[in-house]
């Protein structure tokens, strides 16, 4: 399997490449942000109420050199449904220690997970099914500001 397509249980290659990481430090952050392509897809476009949605996110370094994207917190990436982080209204706390999202030349990192088709409501500690409607699923690199690399797709429930 090509280096850029290896996956671990989190969707990322567990082997640390110290040379790539060292060289990636020389790529300016603004260039690294622009070089990173994010894509998202689902296993369908229409789902029944309560039916799980399989989501696949791909993060790709388009440059022929390694890059390291520095994130302000430990979270490297995230996903949301209609703007709700991980389909929940729960406040998320992440350590303020910066994170490092490293990529080898032209490397692609892929991760797949399921959204249950429900939203978490912390006021009553319950999960509610998504009402029949269209929902926007967004995957993003956890940078602050409007210009963070991201991708969206839309699914219809009901």
Any overview of this molecule?
There is one protein chain. This protein has 158 residues and is mostly beta strands. It has a single domain (3-157), classed as Intracellular proteinase inhibitor BsuPI (Immunoglobulin-like, Sandwich). Helix content is 9%, strand content 43%. The chain has 2 helices and 12 strands; from the N terminus they run H-H-E-E-E-E-E-E-E-E-E-E-E-E. The chain has helices at residues 18-24, 29-35, and strands at 36-42, 46-47, 53-61, 67-71, 77-81, 84-85, 99-103, 108-115, 118-121, 126-129, 133-141, 150-157. Strand 5 and strand 6 (84-85) form a beta hairpin. It is elongated, with a radius of gyration of 17 Å.
Task: Please count the beta strands (DSSP E, at least 2 residues each).
Answer: 12
Q: In the CATH hierarchy, what is the architecture at level 2?
A: Sandwich
Give the CATH topology.
Immunoglobulin-like
How many alpha or pi helices? 2
CATH superfamily: Intracellular proteinase inhibitor BsuPI
Major β-sheet strand ordering: 2-12-11-5-6
Content-based structural category: mainly beta
The shape is elongated
What's the average pLDDT?
Answer: 86
The ordered H/E elements are HHEEEEEEEEEEEE
| β-sheet strand percentage | 35-45%
Radius of gyration: 17 Å
Poorly predicted parts: 1-10
Can you describe this structure in just a few lines?
With 158 residues, the chain is mainly beta. Helices cover 9% and strands 43% of the residues.
Name the features.
158 residues, mainly beta, Immunoglobulin-like, 5-stranded mixed sheet, 2 helices, 12 strands, disordered N terminus
């Amino acid at each position: 399997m090509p280096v850029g397509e290896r996956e671990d249980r989190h969707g990322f290659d567990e082997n640390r490449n110290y040379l790539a990481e060292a060289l990636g430090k020389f790529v300016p952050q603004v260039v690294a942000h622009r070089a990173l392509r994010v894509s998202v897809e689902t296993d369908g476009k229409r789902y029944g109420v309560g039916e799980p949605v399989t989501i696949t996110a791909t993060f790709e370094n388009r440059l022929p050199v390694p890059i390291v994207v520095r994130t302000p917190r430990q979270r490297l990436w995230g996903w949301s449904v209609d703007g709700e982080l991980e389909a929940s209204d729960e406040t998320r706390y992440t350590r303020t220690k910066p994170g490092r999202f490293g990529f080898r030349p032209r490397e692609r990192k892929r991760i797949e997970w399921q959204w249950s088709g429900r939203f978490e409501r912390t006021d009553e500690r319950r999960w509610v099914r998504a009402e029949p409607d269209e929902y926007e699923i967004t995957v993003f690199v956890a940078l602050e500001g409007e210009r963070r690399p991201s991708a969206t797709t839309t699914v219809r429930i009901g």
